[in-house]
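Q&A log
Question type: sequence-to-structure
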Amino acid sequence: MRALWSVFGAVALTAAFLYTAGTSRAGEVPPSTDDPTLIQQRQQMARTHHRAAQRIARQQERAARRQLAEAQRQAAVAAWLVAANPPFRCPVAGGVSFVNSWGDARSGGRRHQGTDMMAAYGTPVVAPVAGVVSSSSSGAGGLTVEVAGDNGTLYKGMHLSRLAGAGGHVASGTVIGYVGTSGNARGGSPHLHFEIHPGGGAAVNPYGTVAQYC
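Response status: OK
Response body:
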């Protein structure tokens, strides 16, 4: 009899355990997709992304306005330069004097093929037109600067004391050197020997041009 009651007791305990376990599992509530906390997190993330997109859009708009303003400014400057720049600038930016010495005799049976523009030592020499600047040196011309003008004409200035450091393409009026006495002008009066070569060919008398603009 005691053995039978022991069997009944074990069966009862097992049944009670299974019932409790089943009830526990059945009572578990799975996470809900409608959880208020998750909804708030998603809404906050959406607002954060929206604000970031708006901030980027505003930055892009400001950058576009700045670019447009800079383009307009450059266009205005270019228009002003076209309107204000004369077709030719006096190559000596300072007090200067000269005479028509074209064809005058020079040493070695040469003829003068330029205009000697007398000026104080160190007076700035400027590009008479917009063009590409280059320099050279020789025993006769001394330190020489050339401007291959955008207009197709080559301009040469000789006997410089030094260069201004300008290189490449420059605007009309850019300082490109300084009046001096280099080359065969050494020991004489400082001046700029100025030449004009249309099309880069033979020199022509520059006196009429410099007389008009200097």
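Response note: The chain has a mean pLDDT of 83.
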